[in-house]
UniProtKB/TrEMBL annotation:
Transmembrane segments: none annotated. The keyword Transmembrane helix does not apply. Pfam families: Aminotran_3 (PF00202). GO terms for molecular function: pyridoxal phosphate binding; transaminase activity. InterPro entries: Aminotrans_3, PyrdxlP-dep_Trfase, PyrdxlP-dep_Trfase_major, PyrdxlP-dep_Trfase_small. Keywords: Aminotransferase, Pyridoxal phosphate, Transferase. It comes from the Archaea. Coiled coil: none annotated. This is Aspartate aminotransferase family protein. One of its GO terms (cellular component) is cytosol. Belongs to the class-III pyridoxal-phosphate-dependent aminotransferase family.
Length: 436
């Protein structure tokens, strides 16, 4: 450890881990799809950090736009109107799913979901229950961690937010209902109707259209449209958490577009600003926006609609268009799919690959019965799995992937080239042989 990593370790927290297990690598610069450590060693970022640096590092136009705003106005209370706020919303409306026309800006995905819950409860009062899924991550503060199904995130909050009802997820590789698609007739989706009717006071349902942190779970074909329909029929708001899946990650601006779904509320964050400045966005339909004409919008933050944050949004959208990001993701995503399928054929430790666009998971298994390398319980108890060790070996080889107990997430910056994909997947191919 160098002086920087020692000081960082000693005086700041390494999150979601025991501190003794944290030996942070000192990163000194980054460019394109690569970052560099203090010894000058180069790493290919095959996960876009936390699935957020979608335009890669060092995009000059986004950087310029932020700098220009700093020269104009650095901060003003959100009660005032600014040109940058107008420009940001006008660009957002062009790329958001149809019907989303009003926005609340914050500084993280967590806050975006907190706002979504509050808006849902205000708009649907006295209904207050929110349905969420077990395999989900919606953020780390009280409200959003209470939505989060992954118990490793909320175990220290025994009295999580009341009124959250959890349901099983459409994880066909390890179906929680022990059924098989399509013979299951989407039992997990249809169950939502039963839950809503029996819980009686349900105000909203929140889903990651493709579950992210918990293993890139792509739902079967009609799952989301079925859940969307059930929500509408029962007058329950459909909230799409696109914090991870938004901003071209899956080959559309937002993942719900793959299923032509119009959510009532959408939350997004991470790459709305290319991650160069922090952001959280809660977008709502006109109907919900109009509700607050005569009803108190009881929410707000000091850093809400921060002018410097907002200045990045139009520049990001222009860069997506100039660079043809969506068509690139669709084309190169097919190449990634082919390469990963081929890996799966050859490595017996790869049980499943799944994904869309440039959002993929490789799920590793111990044997033909698909025994996972590590469970949530193992991770909860702080046991390092063989998959963690392989991710560490990959880092030694100069490739960074974000991994879960039994899977890698492959989600590079969306500007990645075919040659760079090959570099990453060739190295995965090499290290994964150790698990076979
Ligand atoms: N929702 C989803 C789907 C996420 O993946 C995340 C973070 O990874 C969040 C919410 C929380 O966002 P943040 O880390 O910006 O608070």
């Amino acid at each position: 450890m160098d002086e920087i990593s020692k000081a960082v370790k000693e005086h700041t927290f390494g999150t979601w881990r025991k501190q003794k297990d944290w030996n942070p690598l000192t990163v000194t610069r980054a460019e394109g799809v690569y970052f560099y450590d203090s010894r000058g060693k180069k790493y290919l970022d095959l996960s876009s950090q936390l699935v957020n640096v979608n335009l890669g590092y060092g995009n000059k136009r986004v950087i310029e736009s932020i700098k220009e705003q700093l020269d104009k106005i650095q901060y003003i209370s959100p009660a005032f109107a600014t040109e940058v706020r107008m420009t940001a919303v006008k660009s957002l409306i062009k790329v958001m799913p149809k019907g989303i026309t009003k926005f609340f800006f914050s500084t993280s995905g967590t806050e975006a979901n907190e706002a979504a819950v509050k808006i849902t409860r205000l708009a649907k009062n006295p209904k207050y229950k929110i349905i969420a899924r077990y395999r989900s991550y919606h953020g780390s503060t009280y409200g959003s961690v209470s939505l989060t199904g992954d118990y490793r995130r909320w175990f220290a909050e025994p009295h999580t937010l009341g009124g959250v009802v959890r349901i099983p997820e459409p994880y066909c590789f390890r179906c929680p209902l022990k059924l098989k698609y399509p013979e299951c007739n989407l039992a997990c989706a249809n169950y939502v109707d039963y839950v809503i009717k029996n819980e009686h006071n349900v105000a909203g349902i929140i889903v990651e259209p493709i579950t992210g942190t918990n293993g890139v779970i792509v739902p079967p074909k009609d799952y989301l449209t079925t859940v969307r329909k059930i929500a509408k029929e029962n007058d329950v708001l459909f909230i799409a958490d696109e914090v991870m899946t938004g901003w071209g990650r899956t080959g559309e601006w937002f993942a719900v577009n793959h299923w032509n779904i119009e959510p009532d509320i959408i939350t997004t964050a991470k790459s709305a600003t290319a991650s160069y400045v922090p952001i959280g966005i809660t977008g709502v339909s006109k109907e919900i926006g109009d509700f607050f004409e005569d009803n108190l919008f009881a929410h707000g933050h000091t850093f809400e609609a921060h002018p410097v944050t907002l200045s990045a949004i139009p520049a990001v959208i222009e860069e997506f268009e100039r660079l043809g990001i969506l068509s690139h993701v669709n084309a190169i995503g097919k190449y990634v799919a082919d390469r990963l399928s081929e890996l799966k054929e050859r490595h017996k430790s790869i049980g499943d690959i799944r994904g869309m666009g440039l959002f993929w998971a490789i799920e590793f298994v111990r044997d033909k019965k698909n025994t996972p390398f590590a469970t949530y319980d193992d991770k909860f108890n702080g046991n390092s799995s063989d998959v963690d060790k392989i991710a560490k070996r990959l880092l030694d080889e100069g490739v960074y992937v974000f991994n879960g107990p039994s899977w890698f997430i492959i989600s590079p910056p969306l500007i990645i080239t075919k040659e760079e994909i090959d570099e990453g997947i060739d190295k995965i191919d090499k290290v994964v042989s150790d698990l076979d």
